[in-house]
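The instructor's notes for this session suggest beginning with a concrete chain rather than abstract definitions. Hand out the sequence below and ask the class to guess, before any prediction is shown, which regions might be ordered.
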Amino acid sequence: MNERVPVKVGGGAPGGAAASRSSVIQLVFREKGALYAAYIPLLTDGGLFVPTTRDFKLGDDIYLLLSLPDDPQRYPVAGKVAWITPLNASGGRTQGVGVRFPSDEKTRHLRVKIEELLGTSLSSSKPTQTI
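After discussion, reveal the predicted structure:
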């Protein structure tokens, strides 16, 4: 299946964009604010909110190809769906899924990199798209 579904990450175009193909979703974060809104520090190994209209079930495997702000490298992540925000969720929340990072060394380094990028904003009370 070579379906491509455009998905927004964060605010408008400067916030980032994503495209979905089969079970691989590309997430491109161009701004730290969009990454902050999607990052899930509450999950033990970290995770990200992925805006998508595709149907997933809890525990489904989901493969992300992640690009971080000001970093030309793309990071592959084989995560699992940890929660689902349905269409028309209360509070006007964006439809999508929360993806739990795997517990492996490569992804631990990615989590550290994300948390270093976000710095003190991790302790912000600013609303996010996550739990």
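Then share the key points. The beta strands are 5-8, 16-21, 24-29, 47-51, 61-67, 74-85, 96-100. The chain has a mean pLDDT of 80.
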